[in-house]
Amino acid sequence: MVDGSAAVRAIDLSVYYGSNQVISGVNLDVARHKITAIIGPSGSGKSTLLRCFNRMNDLIPSFRMSGQVLFEGRDLYAPDVDPTEIRYQVGMVFQRPNPFPKSIFDNVAFGPRINGFHGDLEALVEQSLRRAALFDEVKDRLKSSALTLSGGQQQRLCIARALAVRPRVILMDEPCSSLDPMATLAIEELMRELSEDYSIVIVTHNMQQAARVSDFTAFLMGDEKRVAELIEFDETRQIFTNPADERTEAYITGRFG
Prior knowledge:
Layout lengths: L7 E10 L2 E11 L4 E5 L6 H7 L10 E9 L2 E2 L7 H7 E4 L10 H11 L6 H11 L3 H4 L12 H13 L5 E5 L7 H14 L4 E5 L3 H7 L2 E7 L5 E8 H6 L4 H7 L5
Helix pairs in contact: 3-4, 3-6, 4-6, 6-7
């Protein structure tokens, strides 16, 4: 399990939309410079939990929560915390690639520009594209529309865009669900490389993907009232070879879910 130096820590986290509770009492540590996978059936609160880690759920009017989410020891939901600042430090890559209708260069430069970056922007864009394993493919067309890229390239561009604001944690919500197998492999290899410098949390329905890329795995499942709880959290090798809970074994072997 993860020690006290966790990048993100959920403590007795419960989530509600209006009067409906959707997550109950989650305790979870995201290890620094590791990949943590969140798995579970559809509707088990995986994306909701993920979005608690950078306050994206704040954009939903009926959202409320109890418990704590700590980012490097600081309460993310404290009154003096600016959610916008948190979203720079805890970046998000969404299920479907969502490049802006701008050039490749301007997509990556967008965050630094609005964040008041005063350094060498061209160098930052190149560095971000290189970290996302995309620069060599697009270096001769940085002024071309990002919408001309393939799906896999667009997703790597979105990763570069997240990296450009220099986050410390990267959240990925089903980042490969709309990609073909070759593009999926490229994203998975990229995640492993990035985990040397970033703490990564990935939501995935793909058990093979979770087993391949993650260091730790959290299994969520809803009860009869569709309130999700954390069934098991451990090193990925342990979860997939000798899970402690029979519900985890049933899910990863495909007997339900």
